[in-house]
Specification:
mainly alpha
């Protein structure tokens, strides 16, 4: 679940050279990306969970998920900026 969230949401960071909070993504990209993450979070709580071998995660995991995802996205942004400066010269 953590990998799905970080690797899907990183699209928002790497899609632009500048600040991802200033350059707004298209509504279609936003909707589909958030839908993928939402499906990944809800799947262990659905009727499909048992046949797929999924189990619901404890509530505390979602705090970890939020912190880990935000940290990962910030680190990607911090790594992207110097790289882009070097490539744009």
């Amino acid at each position: 679940m953590e990998s799905l969230a970080t690797q899907t949401l990183v699209i928002f960071v790497i899609r632009t050279v500048g600040n991802p909070f200033v350059s707004r993504p298209s509504p279609a990209l936003t909707a589909t990306t958030l839908l993928i993450v939402l499906i990944g979070i809800l799947l262990p709580f659905s009727p499909l969970a048992a046949p797929l071998g999924f189990v619901p995660l404890p509530g505390g995991f979602f705090t970890f998920l939020a912190v880990a995802t935000i940290t990962y996205l910030l680190l990607v942004e911090m790594a992207k900026r110097p790289l882009m400066r070097r490539l744009m010269v």
